[in-house]
Sequence to fold (104 residues):
Amino acid sequence: MDAKKGDWVRIHKIVLKPEERSPHLPEDTQKVPLEMWDKGFLLNDVANIGDEVEIETYIGRKTSGILIEINPYYTHDFGKCIPELLYIGRQVRNILEEVGERDD
Fold:
């Protein structure tokens, strides 16, 4: 799939290689690169996944990186339904109503 100028895309870039990172970081952090993922509007005329591209972010900052996604979207959620939690609101209302009746 080709991306065209103006398409909403996601890029990836290695900001610092492990050997370029600060020696003051924890050891496990020093061993991995500092990576950046960003989204923006494609400034190149056309591009394919894997191409080095330039983008303009929503707030107008220009940056570059490897094109990894065209028209990115959120894929996270709040997890599976927990049936026990479905009734908590009703139970609390009932408890509050009972407490309110006792106070009258």
In short: The two ends are 68 Å apart (CA to CA). The longest strand covers residues 8-16. The chain has a mean pLDDT of 93. Residues 88-103 form the longest helix (16 residues).
